[in-house]
Structure formats: structure tokens, C-alpha cells
Design brief:
Blueprint lengths: L11 H17 L11 H11 L4 H14 L3 H6 L2 H7 L6 H19 L12 H9 L6 H10 L11 H9 L9 H10 L7 H17 L18 H18 L2
Helix pairs in contact: 1-11, 2-3, 2-6, 2-8, 5-6, 7-8, 9-11
Amino acid sequence: MSLAPEDPPGNALSGKALAIHRRLCGVYGCPIPYFHDLDPVSELVSSLLSHRTRNAESGRAFKALRARYPDWDALIAAPAAEVQETIAGVTWPELKAPRIQASLRAVRERAGGLDLGFLRDMPVPEARAWLEAIPGIGPKTSAAVLSFSSLRMPALPVDSHHHRVAQRTGLIGPKVDVGPSHAILRAQLPAEWDAQTLYDNHEVLMLHGQRCCFHRNPACGRCAVLDLCPTGQARTGARTARETVALHP
């Protein structure tokens, strides 16, 4: 299952969310392959490294941790300064090093080891709540662990690009932060969607934010969902008005 059903629910925002999903799936090609297949504890580390950091830098930092420590228990036991040095390329390594160690320590204490495979047997809301009870793990990280890892559970992550597209298209309000947006955006999509379809939804909105709906100077003129985006319509309408004034002063 990768494309939304043809009959959207009555709720207007749900209908818009489904229309955007279909349109962007057509542009970016659903189903989208998963970008890796890490175990859930490794995905937790990867997700904590990625906060406000480019994928290339967080990927290098993750590989550096793997190379330096034989397992995650060894990382927990290492001096925080050494871990910080290992991940120096990411944003805020001085905060992320002790946070990663503390999160792994909490997993080990609560689960009896560094294995999160048992989350697969929980409903998604319970699995997310279990993870988010650990200080430093929020909605984005919990969703990423369940969705991106080998668990392949139907959780919807929302990153900054996804969030920006959702705000500009009016799926969420202008004052809704990334954290609260997770529940709102998931509720707009069919409850029965499987992990692949939810992953597709996140990926196409993220890709659209990276390739078209830029933070500065979005390319509204070539946007596949311009007719569904009040922000883009306002921008292009204002530009047309300025161009008209310039041609006919």
C-alpha cells in the first residue's frame, strides 16, 4: 500500500492531506525505499545525532562511533569528552555526547539490556510513550526509531522540512511547533495506513521541502501542490501584482 485511497474522509484537512500525499507521491515516486535498516538502538543513536545536523555530518559521526566503540555498552562507559571528540562534526556535540550516553543508559536500565526489539509487540502509541519517557527523546526521535529502524512500525516522523511544507499548505497552523505537529498530522491520515505508506508520506513532504519548498525563496512556480497551498498562492499572487505594476507604472 503506497498511494492513498481514492475517497478521502469528510474532514477537509484530511482530504487535503490525502491530495497532497497523492500528488507528491506522483512527483517523487512511491513507494520510497528505506534509506537504511539499523536495529532500533542504533537508530536511536543515529536520530539523536541528526538533530539540527546535515545527514552527511550525522552519518559520518555515527560511523565514527561504530569504528571507535565495539558496542553501545562501550560508548556508555567512555568518557563524555571522548564521545564528544568522536562526534565533533555534528551540531552541539558537547550536548549530544552526554545525551546519547544518558539515553542508552536509560534504555539499558529500563529494558534490562540494549535491545528495543520488544517495542514491536506494542501498539505504536505505547511504544512511542515508552521511548518518550526517557529524557531527551521527543516525538521526532520516537517516531524515527519505530519507522526508520528494522522495526518498520507505522509511526509518522516530522522533520523541519516536512513541518515547513505542512505549515505552508495549511495542514497545521503557523504557531504549531514540530513536536505537537506529529499527532495532528498523523490524525489527518487514515488509521489503517501501514508503515511503508506513512514512511512515504514523511519522505515526500520532506523531499518537497528540500527540493522545492525551500526555507528561503521557495520555488512556488514549479510546485506540484501550488493549488493546495495558500502560502504559495499568496506569494505568486503578490509577485504577479508587482510584475504588473512594473510593466504598467
